[in-house]
Amino acid sequence: MNSAIILAAGISQRMGTLKPLLDWGGQPLVRYEVEQAWNAGADEVIVVLGFRADDVSRQLRGIRCRLMFNPRYQLGRAGSLRIGAKAASRDADRILVQDVDQPRPPAFLRTLYEALGPADDYAVPVRNGKHGHPVVVAGRLREELMHADDAAEGLRGILRAHADRHTEVDAGDLLDLTFNTPEEYEAARSRYFAAAR
Predict the structure, then answer these.
(1) C-alpha span between 4 and 80 (Å, rounded)
(2) Which site among 23, 55, 140, 179 is 20 to 30 Å from 188 CA-CA?
(3) Spatial contact of 3 and 42, defined as CB atoms under 8 Å apart
(4) Which of 125, 136, 110, 101 is nearest to 174 (CA)?
(5) Which domain holds residue 70?
(6) Domain of residue 36, CATH code
(7) Are 21 and 27 in contact (CB under 8 A)?
(8) Pair 1, 89: CB distance under 8 Å
(9) How many CB atoms are closer than 10 A to CB 79?
């Protein structure tokens, strides 16, 4: 069973506008990402909300996903990861963890899901030896995700503890597709949809 957790609780301070609501292919980014997760083979999609949760949840009406709320979203990303992991099915074999500012095409997400072998603890995108996001974590690590802590570097700390049991997926230019400022957003949008043509 494939689970997907989309982390969309942050304030988007450097962007100046809320990232989940940014236009991405004619629809809000968060809605686009939920659709891509389904298209990639997810059996459940969980979206963790925080800042302006009502505004974001309105953009997800009519699309199947489970909305979770992190009331302490301003304290760091690990809290949202804990909430998302707790909401994920205990039967999940693979758990995709994706930040809302990291859109990826469904074919790539499907490759990540499929790359995770029985002996792997996680599958990670890589380019020129550099690891990136999103990642797919083995379902057996769900309990660790449920106890992620920012002081222990959250997801990064968990992955580091399991670095000897992972597989890598060549991400090419997708690894750089993330954005924190309006300029980065415009550049990422141009690149993403140019590649999709």
Answers:
(1) 13
(2) 55
(3) yes
(4) 125
(5) 2-196
(6) 3.90.550.10
(7) no
(8) yes
(9) 22
Q: How many residues does the chain have?
A: 197
Tokens coding 31: 């809605």
DSSP for the chain reads: -EEEEEEE----TTTSS-GGGSBSSSSBHHHHHHHHHHHTT-SEEEEEEBTBHHHHHHTTTTS--EEEE-TTGGG-HHHHHHHHHHHS-TT-SEEEEEETT----HHHHHHHHHH--TT-SEEEEEETTEE-S-EEEEGGGHHHHTT--GGGTHHHHHHHHTTTSEEEEE-GGGGG---SSHHHHHHHHHHHHHHH-
Strand partners, 6: 47, 98
Q: In one letter, which amino acid is 2?
A: N
The pTM assigned to this predicted structure is: 0.94
Instruction: Print pLDDT tens along the chain (197 aa).
Output: 999 999 999 998 888 889 999 999 999 999 999 999 999 999 999 999 999 999 999 999 999 999 999 999 888 889 999 999 999 999 999 999 999 999 999 999 999 999 999 999 999 999 888 888 999 999 999 999 999 987 778 899 999 999 999 999 988 777 667 888 999 999 888 888 876 65
148, two tokens: 């992620």
Q: What total of structural domains would you count in the chain?
A: 1
Interior angle at CA 76, CA 75 and CA 81, nearest 5: 125
